[in-house]
Write a structure and sequence with these properties.
By secondary structure, this protein is α/β, with parallel strands linked by helices. Helix content is 18%, strand content 32%.
Length: 331
């Protein structure tokens, strides 16, 4: 197979040693439809970056139709510090489409967004968990078939956020999807690589057979659990339960480090009892959840390695209720 083309995006400004900040890219194939798969938009998520290098190694062995761009790490500012927020104290994935002037994150967002807009018609943004937090779900941005074609994880609908790269890509007419996988002690990248290959198969870039489950769960009700006290997050299970049903009942609690007492508990509501309102259902995304009666336990979408220190406002868990299950889109 031909070697991928290697190129980079020079970002505005320079480091103190006058060497330019750069986003590196690998380009497979040419002509036809064009898809970009990128990672490393948040600086404390190295697993997604490593998965992109593994994906590129697989693509180097396959005949690619059209054009596929792999950008393993698109936020050098964030990874320089290894933090969720950049040195200008903002989160890059809330700053798109960016600005040619202003904070370094705004300039980075502008340069990346316009480079993608000029080159591709589909953006797949791959996020991983962190060393202490595991995730397993996908955000849909209005193209459910594309998002669900990943095949290995449930898809959440109607919860995207302004300023995200995929939100802005959709606004200008591009297809987009955001994948969340792995983290904590779940460092296997196989699912991320295979799922991204499935999406490329769906887009027509690869002709080999897809992998993974034949059906995908669609999550239409989502609850976030935030700590409101300082202390140690505890649970009877850890991040290994992410991706599986959880509850009903107490799934975790905050313990006082001074007295050992439980300061607050995180509770999944009982099956058959109306839920869908109150804290956790009304703090995130463009749509407020409506009351519903759960018929089964939710799937744990985000979970922590425990025990872990938390502060008021720390996201401890995220759970989603399955509204429907669809056949995995294949093309």
């Amino acid at each position: 197979m031909p070697e991928p083309k290697r190129w980079h995006i020079d970002l505005p400004g320079t480091r103190v040693d006058e060497f330019p900040w750069r986003i590196h890219a690998l380009e497979f194939g040419r002509g036809g439809s064009a898809t970009a798969i990128l990672a490393g938009i948040i600086g404390d998520k190295p697993l997604g970056v490593l998965a992109m290098h593994a994906l590129a190694a697989r693509l180097a062995t396959l005949p690619v139709k059209g054009k596929v761009l792999i950008l393993p790490m698109v936020n050098p500012f964030g990874f320089q510090g290894g933090t969720r927020h950049n040195p200008d104290l903002v989160e890059l994935n809330r700053r798109f489409p960016g600005s040619p002037s202003g904070s370094v994150s705004d300039q980075l967002a502008h340069a990346l967004f316009h480079a993608l807009k000029e080159r591709v018609d589909c953006v797949i943004d791959v996020h991983s968990g962190t060393p202490v937090r595991a995730t397993e779900f996908a955000y849909d941005y209005g193209n459910l078939e594309l998002t669900a074609s990943f095949g290995y994880i449930p898809v959440m609908v109607g919860r995207h956020t302004p300023g995200q790269l995929c939100t802005e890509a959709k606004r200008v007419g591009m297809q987009s999807a955001l994948i969340e996988f792995g983290g904590a002690d779940r460092s296997d990248m196989t699912m991320a690589v295979e799922g991204c290959l499935n999406m490329l198969r769906f887009r027509g870039h690869l002709d080999d057979a897809p992998t993974g489950p034949d059906r995908v769960d669609i999550l239409d009700q989502v609850k976030l659990f935030f700590a409101s006290r300082d202390g140690a997050l505890c649970s009877d299970f850890g991040a290994e339960r992410v991706g599986k049903p959880v509850g009903p009942g107490v799934i975790g609690w905050v313990s006082s480090l001074t007295t050992g007492e439980r300061l607050e508990e995180f509770v999944v509501d009982p099956i058959g009892v109306e839920t869908g309102t109150g804290p956790g259902f009304d703090r995130w995304g463009p749509a407020v959840m409506k009351p519903f009666v759960p018929k089964a336990p939710p799937i744990l979408m985000v979970g922590q390695a425990v025990p872990a220190m938390v502060r008021p406002g720390t996201l401890t868990y995220m759970a989603g209720w399955v509204g429907q299950t669809i056949a995995t889109p294949r093309r």
